[in-house]
């Protein structure tokens, strides 16, 4: 996780309008906060001595990028940014170049793309100079980013397009708060730079001495803590859902096997009259319960593979279903079948053969 977060940019922290994390936030209150603008970015650069550079950016997910013959899945994240974004975000251009100040000011229709986008639209070709379309507008590829992999093992960081902020605002509008990537001169100056930025923003926004900040500052440490908390919540919630599913499935197996024992009472009586021992009857029904549970487990594994495929196809997530997860799923299914099938099996084994054969 620390490695993934470090890719956000060395010595960098973020200023945003919205909090990062999860919980019961007062979103109406946050919506009333002032938005970040390019003027804020320039003021920070000019007034905070510990700050080296500031990049302003906005983004929109779920976009489809097309060429004359190819198109991506609707999962590309489009960024609009100032030229400083190259330095503050930790990205590297593998071929071509990043856009410059004049292109940013003029709002030129140029773009830098991630390798996932380049491979999807122009497989086996040099993407530089080719035209792509974003929301129907033509953009010329001037650079391709070096591969970065996935963020926290989930979201691909190569499935993106970066264009000048002004060009982005022509497509998606200006009435949105920008995110500011703020880079200190040195790692030792990050906390000092953060204090300088906080003081400046409070003054620019007329925040009173005792009032809370009407903006958020995120460091790598705070983001690591947030994602750790999120990971714990997801783990606990997932465990709870799995446990509940197993119990519900087990009760279903219990009911099915009880019905099966009732319907096959005469068959059980005949088998016992012919010499079948209790242990054999017990084993038969326990095995049937395990097999029934395994069928359900196999269906669940199939659905898991299907969801993993959909996640990769629709969202661009680099999904993987490891063999140990399949083995664990089938093993737990067998265990549930055995545990919840014991009572019906024991009930079948205890039947009196004479009474069983008399049943209708």
TrEMBL record:
Location in or out of the cell: Cell membrane
A Gene Ontology cellular-component term: plasma membrane
Pfam hit, one: MacB_PCD
Transmembrane segments: 233-261, 282-309, 321-343
UniProt KW Cell membrane keyword: yes
Alphabetically ordered keywords of this record: Cell membrane, Membrane, Transmembrane, Transmembrane helix
PANTHER family per the UniProt record, alphabetical: ABC TRANSPORTER PERMEASE YTRF, MEMBRANE COMPONENT OF TRANSPORTER-RELATED
Protein name (record): ABC transporter efflux protein
Organism whose genome encodes this protein: Stigmatella aurantiaca (strain DW4/3-1)
Taxon lineage: Bacteria, Pseudomonadati, Myxococcota, Myxococcia, Myxococcales
């Amino acid at each position: 996780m620390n490695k993934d977060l470090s890719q956000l940019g060395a010595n960098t922290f973020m200023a945003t309008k919205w909090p990062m994390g999860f919980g019961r936030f007062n979103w109406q209150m946050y919506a009333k906060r002032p938005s970040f603008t390019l003027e804020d970015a320039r003021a920070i650069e000019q007034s905070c001595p510990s700050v080296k550079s500031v990049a302003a950016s906005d983004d929109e997910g779920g976009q489809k990028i097309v060429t004359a013959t190819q198109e991506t899945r609707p999962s590309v994240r489009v960024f609009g940014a100032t030229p400083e974004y190259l330095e503050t975000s930790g990205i590297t251009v593998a071929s071509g170049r990043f856009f410059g100040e004049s292109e940013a000011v003029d709002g030129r229709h140029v773009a830098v793309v991630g390798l996932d986008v380049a491979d999807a639209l122009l497989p086996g070709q040099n993407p530089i100079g080719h035209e792509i379309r974003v929301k129907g507008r033509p953009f010329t590829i001037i650079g391709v980013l070096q591969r970065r992999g996935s963020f926290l093992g989930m979201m691909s960081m190569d499935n993106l397009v970066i264009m000048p902020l002004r060009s982005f605002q022509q497509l998606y509008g200006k009435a949105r708060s920008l995110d500011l990537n703020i880079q200190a001169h040195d790692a030792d100056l990050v906390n000092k730079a953060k204090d300088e930025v906080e003081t400046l923003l409070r003054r620019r926004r007329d925040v009173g001495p005792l009032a809370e900040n009407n903006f958020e500052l995120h460091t790598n440490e705070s983001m690591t803590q947030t994602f750790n908390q999120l990971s714990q919540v997801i783990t606990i919630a997932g465990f709870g859902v799995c446990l509940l599913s197993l119990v519900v499935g087990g009760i279903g197996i219990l009911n099915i096997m009880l019905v099966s024992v009732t319907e096959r009472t005469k068959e059980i009586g005949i088998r016992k009259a012919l010499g079948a021992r209790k242990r054999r009857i017990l084993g038969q029904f326990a095995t049937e319960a395990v097999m029934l549970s395994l069928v359900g487990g196999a269906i669940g594994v199939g659905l898991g593979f299907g969801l993993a495929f959909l996640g990769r196809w629709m969202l661009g997530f680099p999904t993987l279903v490891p063999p140990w997860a399949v083995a664990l799923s089938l093993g737990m299914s067998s265990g549930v079948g055995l545990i919840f099938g014991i009572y019906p099996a024991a009930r079948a084994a205890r039947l009196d053969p004479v009474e069983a054969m008399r049943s209708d």
